[in-house]
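Raw record, unedited: H-NS histone family protein
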Amino acid sequence: MATYKELLAQKAKLEEQLESARVKELETVIQQVRQVVAEYGLTAEDLGFASRRGRVAAKKAIVAPKYRDPKTGASWSGRGRAPAWIGKNRDKFLIA
């Protein structure tokens, strides 16, 4: 039966073999992919790899305000967290 140190040595040797086999296969795959991309004239966008910087964010619709503070003129659409000035009775701040 092999000792712990012998098994660790075998493991290290196998990991080296794994890495070299992986590198060889990657080189082959990369060549194949480059060939196919060149043949068909594919772009990063075609493959779904477009950068996020290039994407335009969807614009949020602006909602008209429903409430206004008569003292400061601040308004609130009724969406999201309620402002401190609105209190519990929202009816008196409702925009007609």
